[in-house]
Amino acid sequence: MGLPCVLYDIDTNDEEKADDLVRKYGDWSDDYLIPQVFFEYDDGEFKHVLTGNPEGVEFTKRTLVDLLNKTLREQRLASKRI
After folding, report:
1. Cis peptide before 35 (omega within 30 of 0)
2. Phi-psi domain of 3 (left: phi exceeds 0; alpha: psi -120 through 50; beta: other)
3. Is residue 50 part of a domain?
4. Is 9 domain-assigned?
5. Are 52 and 36 in contact (CB under 8 A)?
6. Number of domains in the chain
7. Which structural domain, as residue segments, surrounds residue 62?
8. CB of 27 closer than 8 Å to CB of 51
9. Residue 37 and residue 47 in contact, taking contact as beta carbons nearer than 8 Å
10. Is residue 5 one of the residues assigned to a domain?
11. 7-60 confidence digits (pLDDT tens)
């Protein structure tokens, strides 16, 4: 797909960056769920699109794949309307 992906590991020095991103744009609480997924657009806008599920990584991965497929379908449909 060619999309950049930035990962912040909250068990490292990345914790402060992750906390700041979630606090500003995400599903914030003192013990917020991870992972959280954001889209960052060319204009610098961030959009929170997914909060992970405590059921595990595989569940979150399937949810993310479904989200990306849905987003790509919507973009293709929108570009056909132009």
Report:
1. yes
2. beta
3. yes
4. no
5. yes
6. 1
7. 15-81
8. yes
9. no
10. no
11. 888 888 988 998 999 999 999 998 888 888 888 888 999 999 888 777 777 887
Contact (CB, 8 A) for 22 and 36: yes
- The tokens for 77 are 């449909």
Question: Could you tell me the pLDDT band of residue 1, with boundaries at 50, 70 and 90?
Answer: low
Structure tokens belonging to residue 45: 């806008």
Closest CA to 10 of 55, 30, 65, 24: 30
Helix spans in the chain (H): 15-25, 57-81
pLDDT on residue 24: 96
Separation of alpha carbons 3 and 1, rounded Å: 6
How large is the C-alpha radius of gyration of the chain? 14
